Amino acid sequence: MRAVSWSLLVTPLHCAAEDGVLEWAADAESSFGLPDEPPAARELPTVAQVLSTFRGAGCHGVPWFQVAGFDVTSDLSGCPDPATCASVGGLDLGEVSLGVEGADGDQLVKLDQAVTDIGFRKPASSAVLAATVALASQAGPLLVFNGSGEHVFVVSPGDDPTHLAQHWPW
Fold first, then answer.
1. How far apart are alpha carbons 143 and 119 in whole angstroms?
2. pTM check: above 0.85
3. Among 120, 128, 125, which residue's Cα sits nearest to residue 86?
């Protein structure tokens, strides 16, 4: 899969439903997996859980956030070989940003704060799919969309990654 030159955004589907994003998503140029009814609200994953999930999925990237008293690169390390990573199916998430409840912009976050959304700038497409599949098992259904909003995609717990990859628009 190719490296993406724009951003992909991921948010728990129940948060998107609360914010009215599902109506917008239904009008996207292409969509996959959008439910007729929004899912029930559930507990959001914490910063620690998101980082652990990325590490467990074998993903790497550049954190665009800082965690108070914690070296983020221990869980989200940089790309070991940027020159060939994408061409060998590497799982580079690119530049990773977290939307965290109770934190603004450049503010330090804490490991136990809830993550409301995740941004990936210049990721390898396969990396975002791998990370999202892994995170869905903890966070519930996730809405993935590109910066222009032309494509929307839902990844749910238990989805088959091979099946998803056949429909993945990025």
1. 12
2. yes
3. 125
Contact 27, 18 (CB under 8 A): no
Report residue 15 as tokens: 């948060």
**Partners of 12 in the beta sheet?**
142
- Domain annotation covers residue 1: no
* Structure tokens, 50: 């998101």
Query: What is the extent of the structural domain holding 151?
Result: 7-167
Kindly write down the DSSP assignment for every residue of 24-37, as one continuous string: HHHTSSEEES--SS
**122 lies in a domain?**
yes
Quick: pLDDT tens for 66-84.
Answer: 999 999 988 899 888 878 8
The domain tally of the chain equals 1
Q: State how far the Cα of 164 lies from the Cα of 170, in Å rounded to an integer.
A: 11
Phi, psi (deg, nearest 5) at residue 142: -120, 140
CA dist list (Å): 149 to 7, 11, 25, 27, 68? 10, 13, 8, 9, 33
